[in-house]
Amino acid sequence: MNLSNFIIFNFILPIQENPAAHTYSYFTVIIMNKIFSQQGDWDELLGFISAKKVTVVLGQEMFKCKQGDALIPIDQYLSGQLLNAYQVTDKQDLSLMNAIDFIVKNNSDLELVDVISRLREIVKGVNLEFPLLNRLLGITDLNYFINTVVYDNIVANIYQKLRNEPLTAINFSLNEPFLDCGNLDCLQSPFMFNVFGSLLNTIDPALTEESMLEFTTQFNEKMSDVKAVNLLNALQTRNLVFLGCSFPNWMVRFILRLLSNQPMHSWGRTLRKILVVNDPSPLRDTQFDFLKNYRVATYAGDTGQFVDELYAQWSKRNPSQDTKKMVFLSYTIADKEAVENLKKGIEGISNVTCWYDNREILPGDKYEVEIAKSIRAADLFIPLISENSLMHKDGYVQIEWLTANNVSIWRKLDGKTDKYLVPVVIDNTNPYNENVPKYFSELSIGKVVSGNPSPEFIDQIRETLKLT
């Protein structure tokens, strides 16, 4: 069955349960003779993804973090952290929305803005694994996202780590003016539209059902064609995949209509496709009864199963993606020619890209933050030691070197034994010069004159990156 002209809604039915393993068998239910289960359906969807004609709508079910051997919703984790911060020990089963409401109502000296500020600090410190997001963002042909969750920094950090490039954020807010992208060209680059705002970057993120209702009711006015013509045009030309967007019953119709930006009666009757995948939940029957009136087909399985299968099939088509490596080149501006030479030589190795600040940092980005992220995400750090770089002891290059050394230490503490620091001298500087940092001089320092690498050096890099 071809994917064309239908929408997909995911749900699960137990056929036979194994009490010991607590596993289910699944089957696919045909609604209005539409179904998503055949290989041809996956092939067509993968074709859209390969052509970069898909926008993914991220819901709460995609934000599951690893706790021991289990995956728990990030809201559950944050609710516990927030309640602990206010010394509430007998309400640990509250959802995040209810936890916020409880804290405000039971502390007369607190305003909602105070609780949100505390939550911001908690989210900034989140250092958890998000397997589903990691798997999804590992599909590097997916570059466009609509985020219905306010923790956009989690997505942005994973994206940066996996792809070594920033993900542009476009934020919607009730109390801040919407700034449309100046032209469609900028929307060809990876971006994420945070439809309910951003906890860290807008003043009024939607954290309660009341605020989410306000966002949905004012969305059309603030995002009229005149105000957001470029963004809306960009979204309308791509297929939509809703992943894990299980909203409260009253909100389902608003959200699906809002983000598709298309009358529901026309779903499945245009060249544009819409796919909806959700986890099993008490909302499933209600959602199904609603969506079946709009040429809906079903996918058997949950959000995790769908993402795993999508990633597996995409990986078969893109086998080299798993071995892509990034090398960070640290240099001073006076050695620009040398770093260009070295970059050219190293990028001659298949699946290797070089990163350095001159090319990658966008206007307005915080230098130290972006550099630190890229150094941490790199597979290899190569400092270009020269008379020029040693002259500027307080320059940015020294900050990069110190940061890389700290990353190297933490990698070792985490049990990573792969070589990370590969210092090279590019001029006549003595590698054991007293100005060379001790953490470099204690290593074997290579010689790459003027940044022109020898075949032996390239082989060394290839071997270090395990690309032989």
From TrEMBL:
Q: Name one Pfam family in it.
A: TIR_2
Which UniProt keywords are listed?
Receptor
Protein name as it appears in the record = Toll/interleukin-1 receptor domain-containing protein
Instruction: Output one GO BP term.
Output: signal transduction
What InterPro entries does the record point to? TIR_dom, Toll_tir_struct_dom_sf
Q: Where is the TIR domain?
A: 327-431
